[in-house]
From TrEMBL:
Transmembrane feature ranges: none
InterPro entries: ADH-like_N, ADH_Zn_typ-1, ER, GroES-like_sf, NAD(P)-bd_dom_sf, Zinc-ADH_QOR/CCCR
Keyword hit for NADP: yes
UniProt-recorded name of the protein: Zinc-type alcohol dehydrogenase-like protein
GO molecular-function term, one example from the UniProt record: zinc ion binding
Family statement drawn from the similarity comment of this UniProt entry: Belongs to the zinc-containing alcohol dehydrogenase family. Quinone oxidoreductase subfamily.
Residues of the Enoyl reductase (ER) domain: 13-334
């Protein structure tokens, strides 16, 4: 099968940073699905794992943690799917990724593809939908049926992939959504998704929040840069409020800034359930099924903004470059081999 992978962790400008490969088709066992991958999307996690480290892999490392395709074979323990099912998923960080024609993935983190989305549009969704959903409804404890209607949430990094889903999900839950973006085009995108006010996160945020009519924010979801926004989040969060972060911190975070307000800080990591094979691992299957239903009912808007064809090393290098530039709005997808 065709695949794209790496042996050396290099800058994306190096042609050997991602290379075209021919690999054997893997065989499913247990609860595995063998999926024919028809489209993939690229996320910051891909670029972080690929980045220059001075290490050499003994076998090719296959990246990619977003895919949509068709089930070709199933393992003996599979009960949720059958051959021919159209599916979408984000996968498992500890297993070979989706940048290959065929991939093995545990059925408990897979769902049927939204009928209303084509395969490329569907591939843009899983990782960011899971991250945003778990951040809001599991880590921050927001009731998705609207029990916190009218409360405020600030989504930092509102125009990125996770932010694009986060704004929509928070709006569905009845929250008043504020978001951040640093360029006119990204601010316009965040507003089009449901943000009632957009701040520039490259400038002091308190004056902007107060100018918009708020003193404190009930919830904050930081999908951008934990270190850069820590002090501002501690200042803006309401006493006894909750904040969630997804980006690794580079330095120490001043926890004492949260103590006086009795703030709850939660981390969200999409791969926790798969990595530790948690008892509730199937919740990601249910989550993605619910997201698919919301798309099919017209409650969510497609977030794919760019598409490249075909899936190969050259196009994946282009996609990684765009992600690393920090200028990505929504999601970029690659389709076809």
């Amino acid at each position: 099968m065709k695949a794209v992978g790496l042996f050396k962790h290099l800058p994306i400008s190096d042609p050997e940073s991602l290379v075209d490969l021919e690999l054997p088709i893997p065989q499913p066992s247990g609860r595995d699905l063998l999926v024919r991958v028809d489209a993939v999307s690229v996320n910051p996690v891909d670029t972080k794992i690929r980045a220059a480290k001075g290490t050499i892999e003994s076998s090719p490392r296959i990246l990619g943690w977003d895919a949509a395709g068709v089930v070709e074979r199933v393992g003996p323990g599979v009960t949720l799917f059958q051959k021919g099912d159209a599916v979408y998923y984000a996968g498992d960080l500890s297993r070979p990724g989706s940048n290959s024609q065929y991939q093995l993935v545990d059925e408990r983190i897979v769902a049927h593809k939204p009928v209303s989305l084509d395969v490329a549009q569907a591939a843009a969704v899983p990782l960011v939908a899971i991250t945003a959903y778990e951040s809001l409804f599991e880590r921050l404890g927001i009731d998705r049926s609207g029990a916190e209607h009218g409360r405020t949430i600030l989504i930092i990094g509102g125009a990125g992939g996770v932010g694009s889903m986060g704004i929509q999900l928070a709006k569905l839950a009845g929250l008043t959504v504020l978001a951040t973006a640093s360029r006119p085009e990204s601010a316009a995108w965040a507003k089009s998704l449901g943000a009632v006010h957009v701040l520039d996160h490259t400038k002091p945020m308190r004056p902007q929040i107060e100018h918009a009519g708020w003193s404190f924010i009930d919830y904050i979801a930081d999908f951008n840069d934990t270190d850069a926004h820590w002090d501002a989040m501690a200042d803006l969060i309401k006493p006894q409020g909750k904040l969630c972060t997804i980006v690794d911190n580079r330095g120490s975070l001043k926890q004492e800034l949260l103590k006086a307000k009795s703030i709850t800080h939660a981390w969200e990591f999409i791969f926790t359930r798969a990595k530790y094979q948690t008892e509730d691992m199937i919740e990601q299957h249910r989550l993605l099924a619910r997201i698919a239903q919301w798309f099919d009912e017209g409650m969510l808007r497609m977030i794919m903004r760019e598409k490249l064809t075909p899936i190969n090393a050259a196009n994946l290098r282009l996609a990684h470059s765009k992600i690393e530039s920090g200028s990505m709005i929504g999601k970029m997808v690659l389709e076809g081999w």
